[in-house]
């Protein structure tokens, strides 16, 4: 495809995740297929659960004057967004006035702060909250704080469409750039909802995985015949997206091109996915990127490892890719990072970008016996190195029926980043 | 409990600012503006509510001048303490 000035390039990535809190660490974990799923326990729940916990308290990274406003979700978001902005070599956005934007996705926002307040209300009989509690708990707290720190003066928009929240955020940011409204945008998502109340809320759905009796790290098994459910995780992933002309003017380099965005709704059931909406989103992304199914070299699936969800997605993939399904390498990296909810699309897009940048196919871990209903060309075992990836596609399907597909492509005209495999495992 | 005159109230204010926000005791001087310390109205309100709890008083008059100083906050607390 001929380069266009309005093409959207990915020039910065920031990652705080259960499998690494930098691009290099994420990359190393994918190559080693190292699981970040750990044992989660709470004195308030009798059931132990597997979870994508990040075993670091990030509060020491902020001053005590900032912390009252910073739920853990906002802390992760601030750190990942700052990492992405620094990675892109940008000092601040004030000079861009309304030509720079921030697009954010989250499911539960400052839910820990909110639930702590509910406890104070019901148990301690507090009649008013602390003055800043409302600010810390609101869904758009994180993007507000990021915009203040980095002086983002254009649109600051929060998307919440369950598991596709950050996908919609990234896609809409890319559209705003391509349609000429913005030159540059920070886009991504965050989630930090591993609280007893939130875990128990999900428990009601009977869709959470059991702790693997041998190795908790193997508890999430997408597409596997013996999968037992999804594993909730926390984390934040952000990108800096900018137009080709803006990147050229800055003389900066990039990772890849965000080549396509498709969004489609099931309009079917609030909690049960439908293949039709998913395939519509995939087709829309392919069309947007002017790609045919045969040109996709890697597919990062949404596959959360639920009984009901994985076969629906496999059906959608077969429908769109038809005879190419047998060739198309598919994996669900949730097997090692779990389900980041509001940051799920973002981390999976980052993984597609790394696959392109370092020419490898990420694998689905712990997939020994494929469920016949999920028959696809699965990448299993270890990541496959030295596999050129020109175009990759990622799908996210949210409760409520909003599906987002994002296509990312190798950039040939601008200077691109070279990744050193395994440069860090931290 | 320190003496509840202006000096005693200011010492409590210094202590709260130190505990909550790591503001060094010696740098919290009466003439300093809240804005110079990075304290916004919500954080300051939280400190005032702490005074309500500790002193078992109700701050009925919570008006502060524009760009208030720490001294203004101490004066606000003082004038809300019942005299009888």
Low-confidence regions of chain A: none
Oligomer: heterodimer
CATH T-level topology of chain B: Non-ribosomal Peptide Synthetase Peptidyl Carrier Protein, Chain A
Order of the strands making up the biggest sheet of chain A: 5-4-6-7-1-8-14-13-9-10
Please state the overall shape of chain B, judged from the principal axes of the Cα atoms: globular
| Beta-strand segment tally of chain B | 0
Which homologous superfamily in CATH is the superfamily of chain A? Thiolase/Chalcone synthase
Cα end-to-end separation of chain B: 18 Å
CATH superfamily of chain B: ACP-like
What is the count of distinct domains of chain B?
A: 1
- Rg over CA atoms of chain A: 20 Å
Largest sheet of chain B: none
Q: Share of helix among residues of chain A? A: 25-40%
Low-confidence stretches of chain B are: none
* CATH architectural group of chain A: 3-Layer(aba) Sandwich
Report the top-level CATH class of chain A. Answer: Alpha Beta
Residues in β-strands, percent of chain A: 15-25%
Write the element-wise H/E pattern of chain B from the N-terminal end onward: HHH
Briefly characterize the structure.
The complex is a heterodimer of chains A (426) and B (84). With 426 residues, chain A is an alpha/beta fold. Chain A contains 12 helices and 14 strands.
Properties at a glance:
heterodimer; A: 426 residues; alpha/beta; Peroxisomal Thiolase, Chain A, domain 1; ten-stranded mixed β-sheet; two-stranded antiparallel ribbon; 12 helices; 14 strands; B: 84 residues; mainly alpha; Non-ribosomal Peptide Synthetase Peptidyl Carrier Protein, Chain A; 3 helices; 0% strand
């Amino acid at each position: 495809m001929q380069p266009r000035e309005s093409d959207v390039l990915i020039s910065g990535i920031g990652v705080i995740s259960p499998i690494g809190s930098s691009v290099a660490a994420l990359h190393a974990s994918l190559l080693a297929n190292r699981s970040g799923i750990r044992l989660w326990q709470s004195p308030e729940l009798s059931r132990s659960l597997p979870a994508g916990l990040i075993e670091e308290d990030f509060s020491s990274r902020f001053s005590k004057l900032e912390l009252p406003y910073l739920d853990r979700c906002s802390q992760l978001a601030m750190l990942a967004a700052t990492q992405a902005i620094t990675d892109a070599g940008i000092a601040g956005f004030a000079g861009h006035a309304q030509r720079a934007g921030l697009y954010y996705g989250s499911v539960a926002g400052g839910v820990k702060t909110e639930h702590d307040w509910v406890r104070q209300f019901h148990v301690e009989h507090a009649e008013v909250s602390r003055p800043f509690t409302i600010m810390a708990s609101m869904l758009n707290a994180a993007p507000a704080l990021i915009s203040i720190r980095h002086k983002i003066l254009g649109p600051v928009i929060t998307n919440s469409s369950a598991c596709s929240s950050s996908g919609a955020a990234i896609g809409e940011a890319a559209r705003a750039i391509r349609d000429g409204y913005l030159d540059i945008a920070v886009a991504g998502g965050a989630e930090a909802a591993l609280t007893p109340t939130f875990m128990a809320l999900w428990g009601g759905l009977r869709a959470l995985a059991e702790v693997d009796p041998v190795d908790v790290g193997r508890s999430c098994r997408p597409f596997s015949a013996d999968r037992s459910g999804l594993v909730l995780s926390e984390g934040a992933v952000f990108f800096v997206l900018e137009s080709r002309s803006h990147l050229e003017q800055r003389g900066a380099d990039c990772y890849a091109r965000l080549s396509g965005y498709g969004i489609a709704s099931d309009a079917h059931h609030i909690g049960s996915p439908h293949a039709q909406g998913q395939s519509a989103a995939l087709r829309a992304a392919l069309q947007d990127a002017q790609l045919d199914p045969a040109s996709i070299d890697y597919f990062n699936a949404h596959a959360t490892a639920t009984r009901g969800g994985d076969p629906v997605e496999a059906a959608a993939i077969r429908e769109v890719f038809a005879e190419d399904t047998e060739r198309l390498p598919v994996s669900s990296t949730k097997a090692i990072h779990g389900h980041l909810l509001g940051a799920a699309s973002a981390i999976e897009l980052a993984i597609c970008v790394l696959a392109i940048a370092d020419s490898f196919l990420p694998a689905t871990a712990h997939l020994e016996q494929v469920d016949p209903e999920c028959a696809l060309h699965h990448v299993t075992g270890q990541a496959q190195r030295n596999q050129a990836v020109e175009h990759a596609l990622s799908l996210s399907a949210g409760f409520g029926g909003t599906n987002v597909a994002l296509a990312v492509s190798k950039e040939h005209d601008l200077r691109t980043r070279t990744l050193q495999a395994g440069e860090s495992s931290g | 409990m320190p003496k509840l005159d202006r000096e005693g109230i200011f010492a409590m204010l210094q202590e709260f600012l130190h505990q909550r926000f790591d503001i060094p005791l010696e740098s919290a001087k009466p003439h300093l503006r809240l804005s110079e310390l990075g304290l916004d109205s919500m954080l300051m309100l939280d400190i005032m509510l702490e005074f309500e709890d500790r002193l078992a008083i109700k701050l009925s008059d919570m008006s502060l001048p524009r760009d208030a100083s720490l001294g203004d906050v101490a004066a606000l607390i003082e004038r809300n303490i019942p005299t009888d």
